[in-house]
User: Fold these one by one.
Assistant:
Number 1:
Amino acid sequence: MEAVKQFSVPMALVDFIPVFLFGISAVLLQRGLYNKMSKGAFALFAAGTINVFTAGLLKALYKLLYAMNICDFAPLNNMFFPVQSIGFLLAGIGVIAMLVHKQTETVPAVAAAPAAFSGTFIFVTLMVLGFGFMNFGLAAVAKKLKKPVAVVLFCVSFVFSMMMGYLSSRNFEQASMNWIAEGVNILGQIALLTAVCIIHKAGLKELKLEKRSA
């Protein structure tokens, strides 16, 4: 018999907080980095962050529907890891491409989506790698803007994502684990949003990155 998940309505509502914190960070970054990236790199970054936001929103909606005894809509829960992990990977590749490859006006080859696996380990790995690429890439941008506090906060945000990766392997059917994960996720997203606001106010849109012609 399937174990009953210990989701309460307050817990489900709290789950929306880190989702919208990330959404705000994503919008600020998309606005700030739009003129820094080639079309291909920005498409990867934008698609990735939209995927991450959508996956988190659907997972929070699943918890709310379950907690309110409306339905146990498993597909909303099952798509979380595949959609979010690929989203983080695409966003991370976009940021790294902006920094490493300089930027051209040509669109790079489309990244192939990872093959599906039955377990969640591969998705957790992709999520951590992608979020790591994104955070350390943004930390490099913060360093160019001479904002050491933002550099530290991007690193802190990544540490919290590592903790979330570990917690993802625990039993999320227990209320205690869900509350711990909620707290870690919220703190991580607050660190990310604070860092993004710092570099945004520091002149992210005006930051000059070297470009080369196609």
Note: The radius of gyration is 18 Å.
Number 2:
Amino acid sequence: MAEWEIKKTLGRCYGTGRELAVGEEYFAALVQTEAEFERRDFSADYWEAQKPEVYCFWKSHVPNPQQKKKLFIDDAMLLAFFDRLSTEVEPEKVNFRFVLTLILMRKRKLKYDSSRNEDGREVWTLRVTGEDRNEDVVNPHLSEDQIQQLSEQMGQILQTNLES
């Protein structure tokens, strides 16, 4: 399994290099590089003017370092990221989506319905809570250590604690 080293926000706009001010709105994005996802932050002005090509994104504000951090990621954003990964076949992305599935199940946004074997793989069917749709997810049979490692990597990417 590939390891991703995801940098935390540097407090600078990736496009201009300008330091982002405390309280300033910016866009955090995942960008697909040759071998991994990379987090990049963009000022709102740069984002609107350049419309950088990204895999997925979310809005945030530069926190005040004097205030306690709020660790919150919108469930709708997590579900959108889950949906975006639905067509991926690369093992790292399948693993990533599976761990995201477990997180969304814990948050009661996905509910396990059934499983089946398809082409030698175990495929789970899950119901999306509050929506009239089901999603299929490949179970890559990750070890507990692999699940923990991927959860930590997701937390670094999204700058949050995904345990809640």
Note: The mean pLDDT is 85.
